[in-house]
């Protein structure tokens, strides 16, 4: 059984930084992509950043230049370095992976709260 476990959320002041981590564990043969989504109260879940198997990355316009996604292949881990944080970055951040275990599927983490105070 595959699990995604996030860590690194918390409360920081505007302009500060946080680094989120998500590790995929279980029977994993191949990871096609890993992503970070976020959902703020009253809003739909949105894609923040993504990284593919070949290290291609893409970002939401709202975080371009401030956030950096990277991965540690040997640990099945994806990181999200978030700098120059703004109050509008406040949300629950979810890790997502498309990978092959017993079959090719999509998996989600439980979410980690990020709160930015002004």
Layout of SSEs?
Elements: E1 3-7, E2 10-13, E3 18-25, E4 30-39, E5 46-52, E6 57-59, E7 67-72, E8 77-82, E9 91-100, E10 104-108, E11 112-117
Parallel strand pairs: 2-11
Antiparallel strand pairs: 1-3, 3-8, 4-5, 4-9, 5-6, 7-8, 9-10, 9-11
Descriptive terms for the model:
118 residues; single chain; 7-stranded mixed β-sheet; 4-stranded antiparallel β-sheet
Order of helical and strand elements: EEEEEEEEEEE
Indicate the percent of residues in helices: under 10%
Which residue ranges are poorly predicted, with pLDDT under 50 across at least 5 consecutive positions?
A: none
Major sheet characteristics: 7 strands, mixed
Measured on Cα atoms, how large is the radius of gyration? Answer: 14 Å
Beginning-to-end CA distance, first to last residue:
40 Å
Question: What is the count of helical runs?
Answer: 0
- Overall, the morphology is globular
């Amino acid at each position: 059984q595959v699990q995604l476990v996030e860590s690194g959320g918390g409360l920081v002041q505007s302009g500060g930084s946080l680094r989120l981590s998500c590790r995929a564990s279980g029977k994993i043969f191949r990871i096609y992509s890993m992503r970070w989504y976020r959902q703020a109260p009253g809003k739909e879940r949105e894609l923040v950043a993504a990284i593919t198997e070949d290290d291609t990355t893409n970002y939401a316009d709202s975080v371009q230049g401030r956030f950096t996604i990277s991965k540690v292949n040997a640990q099945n881990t994806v990181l999200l370095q978030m700098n120059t944080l703004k109050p509008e970055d406040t949300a629950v951040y979810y890790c997502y992976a498309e990978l092959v275990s017993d079959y090719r599927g999509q998996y989600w983490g439980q979410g980690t709260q990020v709160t930015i105070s002004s």
